[in-house]
Amino acid sequence: MLANIPMRVVIASSEVVPYSKTGGLADVAGALPKALTRIGVDALVITPRYTGLGKRSGDVVREDTGELLFDDLRVPFDGEIKGGRVWRDWQDDTPFYFIENAQYFGHGYIYDQGDWDAERFAYFSRAVLELCKRLGAPPDVLHCNDWQTGLIPVHLATTYRDDPYFSRTRTLFTIHNLAYQGYFSPALLGKFDISVEAFRFGMESGSAANMLKAGLMFSTALSTVSRKYAEEIQTPQYGNGLDGLLRARRGDLLGLLNGVDYGEWNPETDRFLPAHFSINDLSGKRTCKQALLERYQLPIDLDKPVVAIVSRMTVQKGIDLTADAMGRILDTGAYFVLLGSGDAQYEGLFQRVRDVYPTQVGVYFGFSNELSHLVEAGADMFLMPSSYEPCGLNQMYSLKYGTVPIVRGVGGLDDTITNFDRLTKEGNGFKFYEYASDRLVEKYYEALFNYYDAPTWLRIQRNGMRADHSWERAAHDYLDAYQRVVAAG
Ligand code: ADP
Ligand code: GLC
Fold it and tell me: Domains of the chain by range and CATH?
């Protein structure tokens, strides 16, 4: 590559802020390309254009996807040429391209399940490659994310192997969550234009085909979203059956910590807050705390701590541990507020806690970006007792908002949170390791003890607020990774 020609990177992602979101992948896919553009990379994003969203909790969406660029994308799929329309919108100076296809993305949801979802994203993966060819210069790096993009590297290595357009395109595959692998029936391979040889070589998982495995086998290099998770997934405990493969490719596996979009997540400027605050003047945080308690219709006592969770409600997030610890936390007089999306089984559980402690507990089931900002700003402590956590963004948001994280030391939580030490006064949160509610409660008591010691608490808050997890730093790490991928040839 010539020094004065910027590297061209295409980021493919199934969800992208501010258009679609169920979790942190969307934050990353929305922020990383903008940060890359700022450091001189020719970055662009390709994502599906979902229509009719908002019917299911967990889908934050902006339907306005800019201008219709062309309506004749031709995607070889299922033995025919399937059409697609392509839209383009801009975020700052970065173009975001949207693939519209009513058959696959017009049902009012981002994810469904099983073979149907595999088919939807198999179409998407093929469409990404066809769209690249319509957008001018070939990408140096095609940056794929999670199982939904797993067939992109397979097609590049097989279907498009002799296509001169892609002759210098390399792939980086980022694992955001190893637990979701995109299994499908091998009976669909023909429909997806994938050969039996490719299946046997790198997609077979028991009797199923596995899109994530395909991505891991066929990509030039791999990354995941924290250093610790990159190590953990090489062990049987966290490897979800792919640890052997990841150990075999450990020389190609990088751990690159996510960043925070401080344009969105900054208590000094946050557009969703009733008052602003900073590391030098935290008084506005009390106003936010009051607004938060009002919002959850709780009595106002600003001296009591507010303990919060904003999360998808899944086993991953340690929801069962939290439920188990709840009584002991509430018996200290604290407030607890929950903003939780997803699994209905947990709704009943937390609704019952609310019924038993109506003056201390507030629950909101569903997805609300606006409320998530108020919770971050108004709470005193933030719980993330995850069973595993590839990176985790909320603990980094919490740090910036002076909300002290109490976390389990896994993945990105271990990389970003250090336990406060009363002697050295260092540390930005509270951290335990064993997956047990007793350990969570112990750490909560430790936090509470410091909470009632105001100068010490302020010190912990400021230790956290000082951290710089900006995307600028992370974008440089990705640029290094892209350069390695290109050099790896
Ligand atoms: P994950 O991607 O595993 O869900 P992350 O911590 O990386 O975890 O990212 C979660 C993102 O989704 C954060 O931006 C968080 O604020 C947001 N989020 C999670 N649940 C909700 C919810 N119920 N309402 C609003 N935002 C949510
Ligand atoms: C996944 C992980 C989360 C990570 C996010 C963005 O959803 O569960 O830990 O922060 O992806 O990389």
Answer: 8-259+472-488 (3.40.50.2000), 283-467 (3.40.50.2000)
- Which residue's alpha carbon is at the smallest distance from atom 7 of ligand 2? 24
Q: Which ligand is nearest to the CA of 261?
A: 1
Q: Ligand 2 test: best mutation among 176, 232, 397, most atoms within 8 Å of CB?
A: 176
Residues above pLDDT 90, as percent of the chain: 92
Half-sphere exposure of 110 (CA within 13 A, CB side): 23
Q: How far apart are the first and last CA of the chain?
A: 12
Dist. CA 104–CA 75, nearest whole Å: 13
What token pair was written down for 91? 């975020």
Atom 14 (ligand 1): residue with closest C-alpha? 24
Show the tokens assigned to 85: 């329309």
**C-alpha 428 – ligand 1 centre gap (Å):** 21
Beta strands 94-100; 80-91: pairing state: antiparallel
Q: Residue 442 pLDDT more than 90? A: yes
Distance of alpha carbon 460 from alpha carbon 456, whole angstroms: 6
What would the two tokens of residue 127 be?
A: 């469409």
Separation CA 233–CA 251 (nearest Å): 14
Ligand nearest to the CA of 259: 2
Give 164's DSSP letter. Answer: G
Query: Given a cut of 50, is residue 1 above it in pLDDT?
Result: no
DSSP H stretches of helix in 304-343: 319-330
- Enter the tokens of residue 284: 């506005």
pLDDT at position 5 is 73
Cβ–ligand 2 contact at 308 (below 6 Å): no
Q: Which of 25, 28, 144, 388 to mutate to test the pocket of ligand 2 (most atoms within 8 A of CB)?
A: 25
* pTM given for the model: 0.96
- The identity of residue 83, as a single letter, is G
What does the alpha-carbon distance between residue 184 and residue 117 come to, in Å, rounded to a whole number? 9
Tell me the two tokens of residue 249.
């490719």
Burial grade of 200 (CB within 10 A; 0-12, 13-18, 19 or more)? exposed
